[in-house]
Design a protein that fits this description.
This protein is α/β, with parallel strands linked by helices. It has one domain (2-130): Rossmann fold (3-Layer(aba) Sandwich). The chain has helices at residues 6-13, 20-33, 40-46, 53-62, 72-87, 96-108, 118-123, and strands spanning 2-4, 36-39, 65-68, 111-113, 129-130. Strands 3-2-1-4-5 form a 5-stranded parallel beta sheet, with helices on both faces. Helix 7 links the parallel strand 4 (111-113) and strand 5. The longest helix is centred in the middle third of the chain and has 16 residues, at 72-87. It is globular and about 40 Å long.
Length: 132
Amino acid sequence: MTLVDSNVLIDLVQDQAQWANWSETQLFEAQKAGSLYINAVGYAELVPAFDAATALDGFLSGAGIAIAPISLPTAYLAGQVFLQYRKQKGTKTGVLADFFIGAQAQTEGWTILTRDAGRYKTYFPRVKLICP
């Protein structure tokens, strides 16, 4: 099972010239290997790319991506790792979403499909990544 980072889906929605082909190919390959998911945080990150919830829901359904609930163990781990990041002088405040994605992949034993692997490699080194 694969948890899809929102950056991969935004590449497709916005037809990003540099990344759309890579993202589409990797999404297709990951889908052949098993189920695809995003969580509620990833869903929220996609909202600005759509005019309505029905359009977003239709996009996800068409791509074969389900929404996985975030468990309390996942939320706790995300908070712990985010605290570690902040203690190490992490200055970016908009990164909590990445910690929810990484924590969910770790607690569920899933792979992450992303093109921005830096924080995942650092804070979730046991999680398998599909990345450039």
